[in-house]
Amino acid sequence: MANGTLFIGFGLAYPGYQQKSLKLFAASVDRYRELQKQGVIDSFEAVLLDYHGGDLAGFILLRGDREKLNKLRMSPDFESAMQRAGVLLSHVGCVEAFTGEEAQRRLTDYGKQLAEWG
Length: 118
Prior knowledge:
The protein has 118 residues and is α+β, with helices and mostly antiparallel strands. Helices cover 51% and strands 21% of the residues.
């Protein structure tokens, strides 16, 4: 059951690296499909954003078991892929994200903290 989410954000390709960044994106999607078949992740979604004047050009959400996602994130393969993306693309980052019930739990806790400390 998916109780975890990783958000992998990225900006535009650096000048001269556009073709390589397209190849990297395709390879990443293929890799996430394979990880899904292997049961390492439950699902993924690749999202491209329209031009909006900000730094974020798109993101990929990986969903799955939080422990499996944490193990994936710390794997040498994943770290290398993130470094490769950082060579080709601006504003690359990966953070744990919260959706569904976990997002609601965190918002409820935040409200309690505001009531006590805000």
